[in-house]
Amino acid sequence: MSPIITSIAGLAATLTGACAMLLMLELRGNPRKDSKANQRLIRAHKVTGYIFIVFFIVIFAVMLSKAGTYQEEFSSRTILHISLALLVIPLLLFKILIIRRFRRFEKQIPGIGLAVFLALFLLNSMTAGYYFLHESDIDRPSLSEEDAAVLDEKKGQKLVAQKCGKCHALERIFKALKTDQGWTEIVNRMISFDTPNISESQGKQIVNYLIIQQKRREKLAAEASGASVKIGRNMVEQKCSFCHGLDRLYMVNKTREEWVRTVENMIGYSEQADFLSPHEKEAVIEFLSSLSSSRSEGAK
Model's pTM, two decimal places? Predict the structure, then answer.
C-alpha cells in the first residue's frame, strides 16, 4: 500500500476517533432529556466506534507487514510510532471489556477513550503529518554525469535482487522495456513505497543497472534478429526455389501477417510435415518481412 493511501487512512481513522470521542462527551456530559435523541447518539457512537476499529486493524496490519520488510535498524521515530500503535490495543480492549462486562467501571470510559484518541492523534501526526509535510523532500534519484565515477553495475545487480526481488519476481523487470526516464520514474515510485529501505545512492545504482541491462537485451535481440534473417534467407533459397522462382518473392510487398499466411499455405502445399520446423518457419517469415520493410522504406 502506498504511503499516501496509508496516510489518508490514518487521517480518516483519527477523524473517526474524534467523532466517536465527541459523541461520547455529548452523551456523558450533556445528556438529552429526549430518550430518542440519546438513543440516536448512542447508535452514532457505536457506528463510529466500529468504523474506527476497522480502520485501526487495517492500518496496524499494514504497519506490521511493512515493519517486517525493514532491512535497517528502526529509527527512534519508528520505534515511538510502533509503541503508540501497540498502546492503543490494550486501551481498546479495556474499553470494550468495561462496556460489555464490567459496567461498574463505566466512569473510566471517557478517560480511556481520550487516551486512545490522543495516542492515535500522536501516531498519525508522526506518520501522515510527517509524510504530507516532507513528501516533497523524499530523495528521487536521477543519474547525472557526476554519478558516473561511483556507479557500479555489479552493485546495481545485487541491489535489484535484494530490494526489488523481495516484493515481486525479477522476471517482471527483465521483460519490461522502458526509456531511461521510464526506469528512473519507476525506481522513484518503488523508493516511495519502500522508504527507508532504499537510499538515494542505492536508487541510482538500481537505475543505472536497469538501463544497462535493457541496452544489453536490445543488443542481443538485434543480433538474434540478424541471425534469424540469415537463416530465413537460406531456407527460402533451399525450400522455395523447388516450386517457383525467387523473383516473385522479392518483388511482392506484404505485411508480416500476410507473409505468415503465405508461408503457412506453402507448407500445406508441400504436403511434408517436416518441410519447415517452427524455428525455420519463423526465420523465413522474419526474412520475407524484412524484405518488405526495406522496400517500403525505399519507396518513401
Answer: 0.45
Is the pLDDT at 300 greater than 60, yes or no?
no
* Architecture of the domain spanning 220-299: Orthogonal Bundle (1.10)
DSSP 8-state code for residue 101: T
Q: Tell me: cis bond preceding 141? Omega within 30 of 0 counts.
A: no
pLDDT number for residue 283: 85
Right CATH for 145-210 from 1.10.10, 1.10.760, 1.10.12, 3.20.16: 1.10.760
Q: At what angle do helices 35-67 and 76-100 cross, to 10 degrees?
A: 140
- Whether 220-299 and 145-210 are alike in CATH topology: the answer is yes
Domain edges within the chain = 3-137, 145-210, 220-299
Q: What is the pLDDT of residues 134-190, one digit of tens each?
A: 555 445 567 777 778 888 888 888 888 887 876 767 777 777 778 888 888 888 888
Grid coordinates standing for 6? 496509508
Residue 103 pLDDT grade (very low, low, confident, very high; cuts 50, 70, 90): confident
Alpha carbon of 214 to those of 157, 187, 219: distances in Å?
A: 12, 14, 9
Instruction: Specify the amino acid at residue 82.
Output: I
What is the pLDDT at residue 219?
76
Q: Is residue 125 packed enough to be buried (19+ CB in 10 Å), middle (13-18) or exposed (0-12)?
A: middle
- Residues 110, 98: Cα–Cα separation, whole Å: 11
Res. 133: pLDDT tops 70: no
CA–CA separation, 89 and 57 (whole Å): 10
